[in-house]
Amino acid sequence: MAEAAQRLRSGEESVAKIAETLGYENSNNFSTAFKAIHGLPPLSYRKIAFRREKPV
User: Fold this and answer.
1) Which of 31, 45, 52, 56 would disulfide-bridge 40, Cβ 3.0–4.6 Å?
2) pLDDT digits (tens, 9 = 90+) for 10-47
């Protein structure tokens, strides 16, 4: 999930693509697992990370 988080922060890939490359056949299962670890669904995590890393 650390790799997934890094890839979500980069913003270059879709959640479905990240899930697929990490071995999840279903992006919903990936989202559930990601939320269990990080406390947020992948898209929410990406939005928050983007706001934090956005230059002022």
Assistant:
1) 45
2) 988 999 999 999 999 999 999 999 999 999 999 999 99
